[in-house]
């Protein structure tokens, strides 16, 4: 058999291919382009250019142009108003007996002054006038609709075709109103048609003139009302700032904020204002033109500057030859006799001598034990000033104490704490006590963090940034570089309750403060002698404490340090409790000051061991805690006797009870 007639292989049927799981062969030409499947992933649509043989049948997008708009309805309303005016004017110009003209008609007099003759249109004239009024409204609607229709079709509204349609619409309205009316005129003679057209012309002319006059009058009234409304609104917006500045007793001759043009020029010359500090509770930022008026931005601080400008410093009268021990005894007697408050001598000695340890004290204990009263009446007794600052649960940063910049009023919201800290710089001899009442109702480590950190520096670096000064801004006199200085005569006292509504105070806060516990009740006692208030300056108090610290008789000896370190080192090794140089330095200053106030070295060391070291054992429940604490108690008995160190022994017993 020849090769041409060789039998071709049989083509498999669909069932055979399914059995063999072979794909159906596709007939391809050698040069046929490879088709790419359109990618529908991620919302992609097939591109018609992918297949050149495929025609793009997509319709062109029609612009979203509405056929009826608010402007169309407004124009239609004006047209209807003119239609009613036209009919009314026509009836007033009608010369027949059944018209509204009367003898002294204003419209008739206006038409006569324009040289218009009186005509009697008859019933046909009145009907034509009504048709003209109706078709004016209809023509207005038709023209507006046609204009929007051509814009929707992407055609120029004033090209040839649209203009032809507009002209046709006008012609149809004229024909359907005046033309049809003339056709029904009987007889259709010149004597009947001319008066009819004259009447319609007079009505159109007079009504159009009156309509234009009314439009101008109403427009002028509306413009006046809008201008008056804007003026009143602008004055009301400006009033809150003026009232706020007025309430702060800022002088009336303060500078005014620059206008918009002046602000733009000043901003170009002096640069934009820097953003202020703080995140959520920071001082905000000023993004507008520079505000140079410090009396507007800081009204309270500027008022303090004016109050103390030109005032010479003078020392208050002080009691000569006053000793620290006498100060404590007289203060205790004053509390008992005048205020009916009773405190132990060691508590008062700790309160007074704590000034050598830190400017920050914590008075904690049960409610009603006299935590808030102690700093209040101490300032009253020595002639100082106390500032109570109730802590809120929402306090998160320093802005709660030092305020923040208000972007809306362009003024700084000054707090009592900021104002008194600023005033303390003018009165270095006056003692200021800032009492943070219920201080642990919020996190002390948050809102008081800047103060805790700053008070660790040397006293000449006790500065906290309040406000990032903008370029060219002239700050208050004692707010250099936007920082408030904490003077040496400013002391901070925090009262704390320990219950489920408060937060625990961190160890780092206890380490940097003088802590006093008020858990017991002191027995009342009578004071027979006369008690007088003192006038004690901060300079004298610092001098008395410094003399006590330098007194060698009050200072710790090497033997005292050796015995105390043996107990402290045992606690540190047994419980892995660390205490550093801060506590050692506090011990060296606190003990002689406490002794100068009339106390004993053992009582001072008892306070340091109890509050600075043993306190760190709270929350320890391991098995070795009980025997180690018992060993500490035994060491104190061996070194100091069974009656010394009562504070430490009581804290050890409380700790053992909880195990």
Low-confidence stretches: 1-6, 26-30, 52-60, 237-291
Helix content: 40-55%
Query: How far do the termini sit from each other?
Result: 112 Å
Strand order of the largest sheet: 2-5-8-1-9
Structural class: alpha/beta
* DSSP strand count: 9
For the report, how would you describe the main beta sheet?
5 strands, parallel
In round numbers, the mean pLDDT is 77
CATH names the topology of the domain at 324-518 as Rossmann fold
Give the overall shape, derived from the CA principal axes: elongated
Summed up, the helix count is 23
CATH architecture of the domain at 324-518: 3-Layer(aba) Sandwich
Describe the structure.
The radius of gyration is 48 Å and the shape is elongated. The longest helix is centred in the N-terminal third of the chain and has 58 residues, at 190-247. The model is unreliable at 1-6, 26-30, 52-60 and 237-291 (pLDDT under 50). 29% of the residues are buried. By secondary structure, the chain is of the alpha/beta class. Among the domains are: 70-216, no CATH class; 324-518, Rossmann fold, CATH 3.40.50; 551-657. 50% of the residues lie in helices and 6% in strands. A hairpin with a 4-residue loop joins strand 3 (404-406) and strand 4 (411-413). It contains 23 helices and nine strands. The N and C termini lie far apart (112 Å). Helix 21 (601-613) packs parallel to helix 23. The strands form three sheets. Strands 2-5-8-1-9 form a five-stranded parallel beta sheet, with helices on both faces. A two-stranded antiparallel sheet has the order 3-4.
């Amino acid at each position: 058999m020849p090769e041409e007639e060789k039998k071709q292989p049989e083509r498999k049927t669909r069932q055979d291919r399914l059995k063999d799981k072979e794909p159906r062969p596709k007939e391809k030409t050698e040069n046929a382009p490879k088709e790419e499947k359109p990618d529908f992933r991620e919302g992609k649509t097939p591109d018609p250019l992918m297949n050149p043989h495929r025609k793009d049948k997509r319709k062109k997008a029609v612009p979203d142009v509405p056929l009826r708009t608010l402007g169309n309805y407004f124009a239609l309303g004006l047209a209807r108003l003119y239609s009613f005016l036209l009919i009314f004017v026509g009836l007033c110009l009608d010369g027949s007996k059944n018209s509204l003209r009367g003898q002294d008609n204003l419209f008739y007099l206006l038409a006569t002054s324009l040289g218009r003759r009186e005509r009697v249109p008859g019933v046909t004239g009145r009907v034509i006038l009504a048709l003209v009024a109706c078709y004016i409204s209809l023509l207005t609607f038709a023209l507006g609709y046609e204009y929007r229709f051509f814009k929707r079709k992407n055609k120029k509204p004033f090209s040839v075709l649209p203009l032809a349609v507009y002209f046709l619409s006008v012609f149809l309205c004229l024909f359907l109103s005046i033309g049809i009316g003339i056709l029904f005129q009987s007889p259709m003679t010149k004597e009947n048609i001319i008066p009819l057209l004259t009447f319609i012309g007079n009505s159109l002319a007079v009504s159009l003139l009156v309509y234009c006059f009314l439009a101008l009058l109403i427009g002028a009234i509306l413009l006046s009302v809008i201008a008056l409304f804007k003026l009143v609104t602008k004055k009301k917006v400006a009033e809150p700032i003026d009232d706020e500045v007025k309430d702060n007793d800022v002088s009336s001759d303060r500078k005014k904020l620059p206008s918009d043009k002046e602000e733009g020029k000043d901003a170009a010359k002096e640069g934009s204002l820097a953003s202020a500090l703080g995140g959520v509770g920071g001082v905000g930022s000023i993004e507008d033109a520079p505000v140079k008026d410090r009396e507007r931005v800081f009204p309270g601080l500027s008022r303090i500057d004016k109050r103390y400008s030109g005032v010479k410093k003078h020392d208050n009268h002080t009691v000569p030859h006053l000793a620290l021990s006498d100060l404590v005894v007289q203060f205790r007697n004053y509390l008992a006799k005048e205020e009916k408050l009773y405190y132990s001598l060691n508590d008062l000695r700790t309160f007074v001598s704590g000034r050598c340890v830190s400017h920050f004290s914590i008075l904690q204990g049960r409610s009603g034990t006299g935590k808030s009263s102690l700093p209040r009446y101490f300032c009253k007794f020595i002639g100082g000033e106390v500032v109570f600052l109730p802590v809120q649960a929402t306090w998160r940063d320093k802005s709660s104490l030092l305020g923040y910049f208000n972007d809306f009023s362009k003024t700084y919201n000054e707090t009592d704490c900021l104002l008194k800290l600023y005033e303390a710089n003018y009165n270095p001899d006056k003692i200021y006590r800032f009492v943070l009442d219920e201080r642990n109702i919020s996190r002390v480590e948050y809102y008081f963090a800047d103060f805790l950190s700053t008070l660790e520096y040397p006293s000449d670096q006790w500065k906290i940034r309040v406000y990032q000064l903008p370029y060219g801004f002239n700050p208050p006199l004692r707010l250099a570089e936007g920082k408030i200085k904490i003077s040496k005569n400013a002391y901070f006292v925090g009262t704390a309750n320990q219950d489920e509504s408060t937060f625990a105070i961190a160890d780092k806060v206890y380490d940097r403060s003088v802590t006093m516990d008020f858990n017991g009740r002191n027995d009342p006692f009578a004071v027979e002698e006369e008690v007088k208030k003192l006038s004690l300056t901060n300079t004298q108090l610092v001098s008395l404490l410094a003399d006590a610290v330098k007194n060698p008789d009050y200072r710790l000896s090497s033997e005292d340090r050796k015995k105390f370190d043996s107990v402290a080192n045992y606690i540190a090794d047994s419980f892995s409790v660390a205490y550093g140089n801060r506590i050692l330095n506090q011990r060296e200053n606190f003990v002689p000051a406490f002794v100068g106030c009339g106390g004993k070295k053992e009582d001072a060391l008892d306070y340091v061991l109890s509050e600075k070291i043993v306190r760190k054992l709270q929350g320890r429940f391991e098995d070795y805690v009980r025997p180690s604490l018992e060993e500490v108690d035994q060491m104190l008995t061996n070194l100091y006797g069974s009656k010394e160190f009562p504070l430490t022994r009581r804290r050890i017993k409380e700790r053992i009870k909880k195990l």
